[in-house]
Give the backbone structure.
Amino acid sequence: MNQYNIHNIKINPADFQHPMDKNATRLIQSSAAFRKCLEFISKQSLEKQMQCIYRSSLAQLTPKTAPGICRMAEEACEMFGAETVPELFLQRSYTTAVTMMGIEKPLILLSTELLKDIKEEMLWGLIAAEISGIRNGFGEIRFAEWLCDSAGIIPAVISRPLSKLFKEWHKYLQFSHDRAALIAIGDFNKTMCAVLAGEIPMEILMRMDFSDPNCSYMKQSREFLENKGHWTETLRDIKAFSNEGVFYAARYVNLYQFMKNEYWDITEDFMEEI
């Protein structure tokens, strides 16, 4: 019996991937520069080298040391149809983050800060969301981007054409990530608490009703998004260019709309009970 995927959901992440993210992903995957980048990575055995570095410098989580987290990864792979369960590593960091990357053998990095006060079911949602990206090709895109950003590893003739494509991808990928977290957790408020973990103290997040369209956070989010001025748009582009993704206001409103308009129709055929 599943411990975290309690409704025994099995769904292809492509079925709920945000359309703009799907298009940005397709443009990267179909580009000649990306194919050359993957060829370079394979020829130089860069993925194996990365794995060696992490194994030698980070704490790897195993069923013995972190049985719950490893169970989350296994159930998320079953939920989203990922064939390979990622290796899990704990990374000392003061930011709250779960990051998946890799091509043949994906791995997940969990920050120490994230594990401090996040609730178990929220952590489950974040890990599941990262694993959902395996089937959409996020792992290989993230790994290629990471190498392109590391000076001297990927030749400029290959990395330069990809920079604009990566920037566009960062504008939308978190929309798909948040949808996957909601499908895994099955509760909108808890999903938003997971999304905002580290940005707002958890005890305050737990008292907020994000499902209320008239709540203060929704009002301030809509007010921000309705500002279409030049500098607002410029700041959004800068945030995407720096690989920080999109503003939380946009993620919140987008996920709320998905929950209201698409979530139940998409998931009802994949749940045993609800």
About this structure: Residues 197 and 203 are 10 Å apart (CA to CA). The longest strand covers residues 87-91. The two ends are 16 Å apart (CA to CA).
